[in-house]
Specification:
The protein is an alpha+beta fold. The chain is built from 10 helices and 17 strands. The strands form 5 sheets. An 8-stranded antiparallel sheet has the order 3-2-1-16-15-14-13-12, with helices on both faces. It starts with a helix and ends with a helix.
Length: about 375
């Protein structure tokens, strides 16, 4: 048993995760594949399918980068030039009792602000004003897919002034649809999934149903129990912040395309220059800010090394992490604890995937750290 296998087996034995699938590779191919535990009545294995939630965001950002690469839009295209409904967005400045105090934004939101989570949009899990606003206005959460309108949410800051994690990539996906003319699911299938051979990545789980894993949540007693959670089926529009299902091998094909500077197996989806832009710090001097949870059963605080930034498509590590990833590495995750990183300096990409809540709880982070260290120790 390799050190990586041992990490996975130990994590399941300790119930730090309900089950786990992990892969690692480089530009040339896959170097490790392993799994431990059972889910939905079958052994976890390489072809197990996952709700990847916010791992969808990098795919949505790639879709927009394809249009930037083709000269159809720029990173600094104003959102409202493409989607006039953005002009309805107002900044929530405070409260007069239960009455929201709103004002017009002082800055113009651009595609770059959407891609870097500096647009002013935040999810209800990490800003207490947002669930209150949704409740008092009766506006639906974008995550329900019911009468979903991106204008349901307020802005919680002026665009370009601070990090705030929310449905920005849903807006970016809508910009792609409006500029290109295809629905985002068709665009992604034709421009990304088919060229990259990602045949197990889909907006609806139908074809993956017999391999789809189950979600667990850790209760107050510390034990994992079943929990129903999935992207809304057949929504009015697919949110590129959360909509996809995929597998470890498929997502590795996407990551390896980035390591290969825009192509995989002879199929190019981006120019080399566009990949450089996609992976460069695009925050214009801002940095990632700790995401403080307001929904502890669903997510712990999200804490990253000081000085962490965001590229066009990924969270970007700006300093070498001893025994782990290098400066310039790109990463992110989905809320049910599907995680990935790619390290261009060391030619490494990897995923470690389960389906559990809370997001980034300590037992999961312990497993992720041990797995990452084992991947680098094996190089």
């Amino acid at each position: 048993m390799s050190d990586m296998d041992q990490v996975l087996a130990d994590a399941v034995a300790a119930q730090d995760v309900p089950f786990v699938v992990a892969m690692a590779g480089n530009a040339a191919g896959i170097t490790y594949s392993g799994a431990a535990g059972e889910t939905a009545g079958r052994a976890a294995q390489e072809d197990t399918a996952f709700r990847i939630f916010s791992m969808t965001k990098a795919i949505g950002s790639l879709a927009a980068m394809i249009l930037v690469d083709r000269g159809k839009m720029s990173m600094d295209t104003p959102v409202a030039d493409v989607l006039p409904e953005w002009n309805q967005m107002q900044v929530l400045e405070g409260w007069n009792g239960d009455e929201p105090i709103l004002r017009a934004p002082k800055t113009v939101a651009t595609a770059r602000h959407l891609a870097t989570h500096t647009s002013g949009e935040e999810y209800e899990f990490w800003n207490p004003d947002v669930p209150k606003y949704l409740e008092v206005t009766g506006n639906p959460s974008i995550l329900t897919g019911l009468n979903a309108s991106l204008t349901s949410y307020p802005l919680t800051s002026d665009p370009g002034t601070r990090w705030g994690y929310g449905p920005s990539i849903d807006w970016l996906g809508r910009m792609v649809e409006k500029i290109d003319g295809r629905r985002i699911d068709a665009f992604c299938s034709e421009e990304i999934f088919e060229p990259l051979g990602m045949s197990d990545t889909a907006f609806e789980p139908d074809a993956l149903a017999d391999r789809l894993s189950a979600v667990s949540i850790r209760g107050e007693d510390g034990k994992l129990a079943p929990f129903e959670l999935a992207p809304p089926p057949k929504p009015e529009f697919y949110g590129m912040g959360h909509a996809l299902y995929s597998t470890a091998p498929d997502y590795m094909r996407f990551l390896r395309m980035v390591l290969n500077k825009g192509q995989l197996d002879g199929n190019r989806v981006l120019s080399e220059g566009a990949v450089e832009q996609m992976c460069a710090d695009q925050m214009n001097g801002l940095t990632f800010q700790t995401m403080h949870t307001v929904a502890p059963p669903l997510t712990a605080d999200v804490v990253l090394p000081e000085g962490t930034t965001h590229s066009w498509a990924f969270v970007r590590t700006e300093a070498d992490q001893p025994g782990k990833r290098s400066a310039g590495s790109q990463s992110w995750a989905g809320v049910c604890n599907t995680h990935y990183w790619l390290d261009p300096a060391k030619d490494v990409a990897a995923v470690i995937m389960t389906q559990s809540l809370p997001f980034v709880e300590p037992p999961l982070l312990k497993t992720y750290d041990a797995y990452e260290r084992a991947v680098y120790a094996s190089l």
